[in-house]
Amino acid sequence: MTSNLRWKLIAIFVVVALAVVAFYPPKDKVKLGLDLKGGVHLVLRVQTDDALKLETETSAERLRDELSRQGVSIGAVTPLDVRSFRVEGVPADRDADFRRIAEEWVGQVFDRSSAAGGAYTFTLKTAQAARLRQEAVAQALQTIERRVNELGVAEPIVAPHGEGDQILVQMPGVTDVARAKEIIRSTALLELKIVEDGPAPTREALLATRGGVVPADLEVVPGAAEAGATGQVYYLVKRVAGITGRDLRNARPSLDENNQPAVGFSLNQQGADKFSQLTSQNIGRQLAIILDGRVQSAPTIEGRIYDEGRISGSFTQQEVQDLSLTLRSGALPASLTYLEERTVGPSLGADSIRAGVMASAIGLGLVTLFMLAYYRLTGINALLSVSLNLLILLGFMAYIGAVMTLPGIAGFILTIGMGVDSNVLIFERIKEELAAGKSARAAVSAGFDRVFLTILDTHVASLISAAFLFQFGTGPIRGFATTLFFGLLSNVFTAVFVSRTLFELILSRRPQAAKLSI
Amino acid sequence: MHLFTNTNYNFTKWRWHALTISALIVVFGLVQLARNGLPLGIDFSGGTIVVLKFQQPVSEEAVRTALNALPGEKVVQQYGNASANEVLVRLPQAQQTEQGTSLEQGARQVLEAVRAANLGQFEVISTEIVGPVIGKDLQRKGIYATLASIFGITLYIAFRFRLSFAIGAIAATLHDVIVTLAVLTFFGYELSLNVIAAILTITGYSVNDTIVIFDRVRENFRTMRGASLENQVNTAVNQTLSRTIITAGTTFLSVLALYIFGGEVLEGFAFTMLVGIVSGTYSTVFIASAIAIALSKNEANTPAAPAAPARSASDRARRRERRNA
Questions:
Q1: Which one of B3, B145, B318 has the shortest CB-CB distance to A469?
Q2: What is the CATH code of the structural domain delimited by A48-129?
Q3: Residues in chain B within 8 Å Cβ distance of A413
Q4: Which of A371, A408, B6, B325 is the most buried (most CB within 10 A)?
Q5: Chain A residue with the nearest C-alpha to that of B310
Q6: Is ipTM strictly over 0.90?
Q7: Per-residue confidence at A513, pLDDT binned at 50, 70, 90?
Q8: Could you please report the per-residue DSSP string of A393-430?
Q9: Which CATH number applies to B24-40+135-324?
Q10: What's the rounded Cα separation, in Å, for the pair B29 and B21?
Q11: Nearest Cα to Cα of residue A451 among B314, B277, B281
């Protein structure tokens, strides 16, 4: 054996050893995709319009409050759409004051345009709208991530997806999909507001004393009549919340005075300051605890409260746990809609693995039979290089943490095909050279030399399509593209380098051989 | 063992026949696609698929009856082996699914209806719900990926060989894609993500075959100076014939195993590959070379001058070897 050959063998051994180390033991090192492990794949859209609407409404509110504080009386303030609102009836003699106040309070965020008769339209600036949308998506992403983590899902994926406002959530091994989806989507917007009137059985009854008109600084919120009751009642509450979910420090399951499941919460420093002020000023009045726009309960304030509170309603144990979880993880800045949902049960995943492995084994077996029958001993060479190719591919997948999917298994099978193709290309050429009367050594050498560029060209072309496939793909298809891509790369090594070294090894035993078993 | 030894079939002589037949198949395929449209799976059209596994045998008819009350056109079919008692239910894209919770409503209604019909114990083994936004998105991406990959490969072949060869290779590839789509439609398969993956793989495979022959043509440019282009191409096709057949055969075998044993999820993928391999082998032998010859002849009278970049190292090695031989 020449030292050159020895080094080649050592190189091959090292590469294969590294690959085996990378994927051994396969149970821990090879990550399975959702389609094999079971789990749920969700694509959500953040309704970023919600964030714009909130900004528009609160700005309109702020402007009106400030105008009335400075004594500028105006007509109606009406929201036009999510990013603009209209102010009417600005008195001509206070026009300059109005402009000054508007500039000071909302001028940074809104463009102002005037119309006849003291009417103004304020529109959210494009750059500001884009910023708000981005912030809403980023904040939703963080919130969802916290919730998914609190759900205790192993190796979840929460990532931006597609254009702008989409979020991808993958949760392997989750069985109660409905609950997971509910937890992710619930807005969990907690607001504590002072009750001005109510409860009343209908809206009309509630507003009867006010002539059927909701005062500007108040709003009507529906709620449950009593814990456990089915009836609907209405409360008239302050529009501006005294305390919101942002002031929370913690939330946990607890029990209310009737030993029913409830959620206890504690406030952070800022929240506690506001809360103690709010409660001490409103002793004897009702405080509505509003969750996602619904009054859960409206206890009477009996004294100053600092930083502890409780949300009671007709909750089950499970609901209390889920609610604590979502409150802890913070409110979503905007509502979410589901665009796509794919759930694979664990039994289907196991079936798929079995079928995939079986198909691979049978495919490899058939190809083996053919190669041995057709190329005889040289067929072993092909099998060795194809098997090493699969080992290296597996090692590479494990090393870069690529996910194995069912189409990925198909990628393995196609890699077998590519490997065999390269070998066939080389062997046929060697046969040709032998038929032309060359010695075994010269034929092998010529065969590899001449076919190398062909193999390079075919592989580059396939790599191009694999790369675009990866670009295009979601989930499983990406697994396929990744497998194909790295299979092609390692195939260049095994089909050209490993296979040639094996030939040289055989020839080194019989240097003068004129024949090959091919 | 030799499959083909020193064959000398005159493939190029038959190229006009082959081109005519292929043109007919392609036109037929296009007409069929235009008439019936491409049957889109839920990945692209949007909609809901629920797969139920019953504990005891249940007829498709019983499930269909149970779902009668639900609106829209439903598809109910057996999923996988008959012994597995698995039934697939597909619902079309519901209206206004963009609004809130209604996306999963269809799936929920199916479960309620089946439960109400008392067909026995069952579990949901998979659910796929694709909204219209995602469907459109995937459609766009699928078209983009197919075109971009074809364009990228064309550029590469034009760079490595010559433009006429690139056009020949791409014509052959497009031929394969259209033939495959037509056959898929004929056998009632729907276009899904997996099928698109298979089609992209076929473009790679088909181009591979073509490159092997072109590479040989390029080599023959040197050794067969003076021979006609037809002759050179024909020789190359013959020289690589056994490789073409063996590779197609072994790949076909392994994909066949995937088709038979790979399970329901990959069936569409495997079927597409099977059709593509057959079509790809045919188009490589007949179409790619025929178009390359036709276009080369029209090129500004530069017979057999390879536009390939210098193949420095290996070329030198080869010349050295030729001297030594």
A1: B145
A2: 3.90.1070
A3: 254-255, 257-258
A4: A408
A5: A453
A6: no
A7: low
A8: HHHHHHHHTPEE-HHHHHHHHHHHHHHHHHHHHHHHHH
A9: 1.20.1640.10
A10: 12
A11: B314
* Phi-psi domain of B218 (left: phi exceeds 0; alpha: psi -120 through 50; beta: other): alpha
A34, A344, A468: best to mutate for the B interface, most B CBs within 10 A: A468
Q: How far apart are alpha carbons A66 and A55 in whole angstroms?
A: 16
Cα B254 from Cα B251, distance rounded (Å) = 5
Q: Assign a CATH topology to domain B47-130.
A: Alpha-Beta Plaits (3.30.70)
What residue type is assigned to position A129 of the chain?
A: A
| Same fold: A3-38+345-509 with A138-340 | no
Give the number of A-B residue pairs with CB atoms closer than 8 Å.
Answer: 238
Contact check, Cβ <8 Å, B194/A407: yes
> Which pLDDT belongs to residue B99?
47
DSSP A374: H
Contact partners, residue A482, CB within 8 Å, separation at least 6 = A397, A402, A408, A411, A470
A473–B193 C-beta distance less than 8 A: yes
- pLDDT tens readout for residues A469-498: 888 766 667 888 889 999 999 999 999 999
Q: What is the phi/psi pair of residue A162, to 5°? A: 55, -140
> Which residue from A minimizes the CA distance to B132?
A339
Residues of B in contact with A377 (CB under 8 A): none
User: B317 contacts in A (CB within 8 Å)?
Assistant: 449
Amino acid identity of A393?
L
Query: A3-38+345-509 domain in CATH 3.40.109.10?
Result: no
- Kind and range of the H or E run holding B207: helix B193-223
Backbone angles phi, psi at A483, to 5 degrees: -60, -45
d(CA A420, CA B205): 13
Look at B263 and A473 and tell me if their CB atoms are within 8 Å: no
The mean predicted confidence, pLDDT, of chain A is 85
Placement of tokens 């433009």 in the chain: B163
- Nearest one of B85, B228, B103, B211 to B157, comparing CA atoms: B211
Q: Give A374 to chain B, closest Cα distance, Å.
A: 6
What is A231-244 written as a DSSP string?
-EEEEEEESS-SEE
Which among B127, B144, B247 has CB closest to A424? B247
pTM for the structure as a whole: 0.79
Task: Give pLDDT tens digits for A340-357.
Answer: 899 988 888 888 888 888
* β strands within A131-215, DSSP E: 157-161, 166-172, 190-200
Determine, for residues A472 and B145 on separate chains, whether the beta-carbon distance falls below 8 Å.
Answer: yes
Domain definitions of chain A by residue range: 3-38+345-509, 48-129, 138-340
* Contact between residue A76 and residue A88 where contact means Cβ atoms under 8 Å apart: yes
Q: Which fold has domain A138-340?
A: Gyrase A; domain 2 (3.30.1360)
Q: Which residue of B has its CA nearest to A36?
A: B265
**A177, closest residue in chain B (CA to CA):** B127
Q: With a cut of 50, which residues of chain B have pLDDT below it?
A: 97-100, 300-314, 325
